[in-house]
Design brief:
alpha/beta; 6-stranded mixed sheet; VWA containing CoxE family protein; vWFA_dom_sf; 9% strand; 10 strands; Uncharacterised_CoxE
Length: 484
């Protein structure tokens, strides 16, 4: 590909006319430079074979604009480039966020941006094929974090799992993303789920058992939702050192997510003030401001002294009602993200005073995990991912636990693609009619991406209990409103 063939080509948006180019642009070398870099990006994305003409032209462009040649090396991670050239870190942050100033174009700056954008996109999207090592996965996760930062987001925020307020994601070297979050719905549709899908594919291509058997390699793994899913699926085939390393990774992931969720729950974990009883008359409850205000009539100007004949105290006791929380989780493969998050969330609520938490997991069989609900790590080790979905077996365990309906909330997390739809829905409607609070949940992940059976979705809506889906903060809010 030569400069002459690239000249005159301007990317267009589908359904619109090509933008008219200024006549002077034909003499502007920056326009051709930018085109060369983007043609190389497209060629490398769709064909693993190197195009010699594009490569040599791109090298010349990068060197001419003063950027390091490592930007064109597919083996170089963004981390390594930033370590060698620290001044580039600030440029990578917010690199793909649209500029607020839409005035005159700085074509030289556009060429520089094209080179850096191409590097980030190629490292993340061109993953090749074949077996993936632990080091390669860790490198990809770091580069994906840089892409998220380039889009103005926090590392891990778009991939789903732990980012975006629900927890820190896989963090690359350096600081968090800069600038406001762009409208990804118009910038790059569905990029978050696609990044998560790429990461899941890389994990599947790992020889995970061999990596786990080597403590040095296992230590290089970064816990992610995709990795945890693979570990949970394969845990029964592991033993010895490999099993110990797998448990350590699961424990690390659980602890990281639990720390974030615990903070969210603590923000609204108290009940309302109980004013049915007088406040306890102790010094720490003394309302000094009110006491002074109510006794101002006893002020003696001559003595410059306030005589207090009545003390006022604050109400500090909060009204809490013992509540029962029953969490039913679909443990089929499609719901693993929700299952992990809700298992951790159940353990946090189990630690709150006067909250009696029960946890049930099911596929074609149901398992009562209540004895281990305080320890999400042990709970996850007892799950068995996969299989079909038969909620009636879980309902058989859940219904007897509803002793006082008015004081019970049932959270049912599933995509609701069930074998026995009518009898299961009738049982759920009966719970709702009994006075218990029934919350059907289609997804409680960071991304909020889930496919919910439309048959159930419509009936839950008619019942007055619409399916809750989206960020896990929504479920936290619903539970705190009921339990608080």
């Amino acid at each position: 590909m030569t400069d002459s063939t690239a000249e005159g080509i301007e990317p267009t948006t589908e359904g619109t006319e090509p933008a008219a180019r200024p006549a002077a642009s034909a003499d502007d070398p920056n326009e051709n430079r930018r085109q060369v870099l983007y043609w190389r990006l497209l060629a490398r994305l769709f064909d693993s074979e190197e195009q010699a003409a594009l490569e040599s032209a791109s090298v010349a462009v990068v060197e001419d604009i003063g950027l390091p040649a490592e930007l064109l090396d597919p083996r170089a991670s963004v981390d390594s480039i930033v370590q060698r050239h620290p001044d580039l870190a600030a440029e990578f942050d917010g690199l793909m966020v649209p500029d607020a100033d839409e005035g005159g174009r700085d074509r030289a700056a556009e060429v520089r941006r094209a080179a850096m954008v191409s590097k980030v996109l190629l490292n993340v999207l061109a993953t090749g094929s074949g077996t993936v090592s632990a080091g390669q996965l860790a490198g990809w996760q770091s580069d994906a974090g840089w892409l998220e930062r380039a889009l103005g987001c926090k590392p891990g925020q778009l991939r789903g799992g732990r980012g975006g307020g629900a927890g820190a994601g896989v963090s690359p070297t350096g600081t968090g993303g800069a600038g406001g979050t762009p409208d990804l719905g118009t910038l790059i549709p569905e990029i978050g789920p696609e990044l998560a899908a790429i990461e899941a594919d890389l994990v599947k291509r790992m020889r995970l058992r061999e990596v786990l058997a080597d403590p040095a390699l296992a230590a290089r793994l970064t816990p992610s939702m995709s990795l945890i899913e693979q570990l949970l699926r394969d845990k029964d085939n592991l033993s010895g050192v490999a099993l110990a390393n797998a448990k350590a990774l699961i424990r690390r992931f659980v602890d990281e997510v639990a720390e974030v969720l615990r903070t969210q729950v603590a923000k609204a974990s108290v009940g309302t003030l109980d004013r049915s009883l007088p406040p306890k008359r102790v010094y720490r409850n003394l309302d000094l401001d009110r006491t002074i205000w109510k006794n101002l009539t006893n002020w003696s100007p001559e003595e410059e002294r306030l005589y207090v004949d009545r003390l006022f105290y604050r109400h500090t006791v909060r009204k809490t009602t013992p509540s029962r929380l029953i969490v039913v989780v679909d443990q089929s493969g499609s719901m693993v993200d929700s299952m992990v998050n809700c298992t951790i969330l159940a353990s946090i609520f189990a630690g709150l005073p006067k909250v009696d938490v029960h946890l049930i997991a099911y596929d074609t069989q149901a398992l009562d995990l209540t004895p281990w609900v305080h320890d999400p790590f042990e709970t996850l080790l007892r799950t068995n991912l996969g299989g079909g979905t038969d909620g009636t077996v879980a309902m058989a365990l859940a219904q007897p636990k509803i002793a006082e309906p008015r004081n019970t909330v049932v959270v049912w997390i599933s995509d609701f693609y069930e074998w026995h739809t009518d009898p299961l829905f009738e049982s759920m409607a009966a719970i709702h009619r009994s006075g218990a609070k029934f919350i059907p949940v289609g997804s409680v992940t960071s991304s909020g991406r889930a496919s919910v059976n439309p048959w159930f979705r419509e009936r839950f809506k008619d019942l007055g209990t619409p399916v809750l889906s989206g960020h896990i903060r929504k479920l936290v809010h619903e539970l705190k409103t009921f339990l608080g």
